């Protein structure tokens, strides 16, 4: 249950008004870690 909730949060991280952290970690300087696929969602 908790893992599913965390997966849902990760999936929706780039959507909405509060996306500054997602955008920061989506650049190559941070190896685009925000764009990595969550294994729970596959």
TrEMBL record:
Superkingdom of source: Eukaryota
Signal sequence coordinates: none
Parts forming coiled coils: none
Positions of the Cyclin C-terminal domain: 1-37
Alphabetical list of InterPro entries matching this protein: Cyclin-like_sf, Cyclin_C-dom
Gene3D superfamilies: Cyclin-like
Protein known as: Cyclin C-terminal domain-containing protein
Organism annotation: Nymphaea colorata
Organism lineage: Eukaryota, Viridiplantae, Streptophyta, Embryophyta, Tracheophyta
């Amino acid at each position: 249950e908790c893992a599913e909730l965390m997966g849902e949060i990760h999936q929706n991280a780039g959507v909405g008004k509060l996306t500054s952290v997602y955008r920061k970690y989506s650049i190559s300087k941070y190896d685009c870690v925000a764009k990595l696929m969550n294994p729970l969602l596959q």
